[in-house]
Specification:
Blueprint: E1 2-7, E2 11-18, E3 21-29, H1 36-49, E4 59-64, H2 69-81, E5 86-87, H3 108-121, E6 125-130, E7 133-139, E8 145-152, H4 154-164, H5 184-211, E9 216-220, H6 224-227, H7 241-253
Parallel strand pairs: 1-4, 4-5, 6-9
Antiparallel strand pairs: 1-2, 2-3, 6-7, 7-8
Length: 255
């Protein structure tokens, strides 16, 4: 089986594929100080809960937005899995043209999403990834990666509001009940979630204008299910989009 690992700033999402079939997947909080041994212990325990072991994993690939953890994952694979883990980055084939001023600036997760997006929709298409940051990645009608947009994630927006507002309470993110709130907590949820959804729609409409017409849109990321129901431009969520992109990139580079 193939192990695919997406290391984000907030969460690490990883799974196992048998061919094109996703066998299992897990999420856990990203701990920047994790060592290769700690990652190996966590992976081994989760595999065991599903009746699997390290011996079932014949290959692996990782994309990481946390530079410190990339070598820890590759060291884990070498030590516990007995093979070299592929790393998404310069030198790895993606199967698509990259129309970006400096391709080395593109986050690994954004590139992986674009590969999955192209395989699924062709183009034009947009992926909106709701994580620590919210990213918009665009594939042209020709199937090229042409760039996108990046904005502050909704959790960071909420934290900034309550940290800067001395009288404002800490609020847990949840779907707002109404736009006209009757208390401070609901008022914050209303403004943050509805306002964020409106911002997402506004950026997507600008992207359509620059593309010269409508595009297929899919959302992914841990916070997508909170925001997407309140948007007008997003109809589909694919929680496995990044894992699928990792599988596709591994297939291109397996030899």
């Amino acid at each position: 089986m193939l192990l695919v690992v997406d290391v984000g700033n907030t969460q690490t999402h990883f799974g196992t594929f048998r061919g094109e079939e996703l066998v299992e997947h897990w999420r856990f909080a990203t701990v920047r100080e994790s060592t290769a041994d700690e990652l190996g212990a966590a992976l081994g325990n989760l595999l065991e809960l599903r009746g699997l072991s390290f011996k079932d994993l014949s290959a692996s690939i990782v994309s990481s937005t946390v530079p410190h953890l990339e070598p820890e994952w590759t060291a884990m694979a070498e030590r516990y899995l007995g093979h070299d883990m592929l790393v998404v980055g310069p030198g790895l084939k993606t199967g698509m043209a990259i129309r970006y001023d400096n391709p080395r600036e593109i986050g690994a997760d954004r590139l992986v999403n674009a590969v999955a997006l192209r395989a699924r929709f062709g183009g034009p298409a947009v992926c909106v990834d709701f994580g620590t940051a919210t990213t918009f990645d665009v594939v042209s009608a020709e199937g090229d990666y042409i760039g996108g947009s990046l904005m502050t994630g909704i959790e960071i927006s909420l934290d900034a509001l309550t940290e800067r507002g001395a009288r404002l309470p800490k609020v847990e993110l949840a779907p707002p009940k109404t736009a006209i709130a009757k208390n401070t907590i609901d008022a914050i949820r209303s403004g943050v979630v509805f306002g964020y959804a409106g911002a997402i729609d506004a950026i997507l409409r600008r992207l359509y204008d620059e593309l010269g017409g409508h595009a297929d849109v899919v959302a992914t990321g841990g916070l997508a299910r909170l925001v997407v129901p309140f948007t007008e431009e997003i109809e589909e969520i694919d929680d496995m989009l990044t894992l699928t992109g990792l599988r596709l990139i591994h297939a291109l580079n397996a030899q």
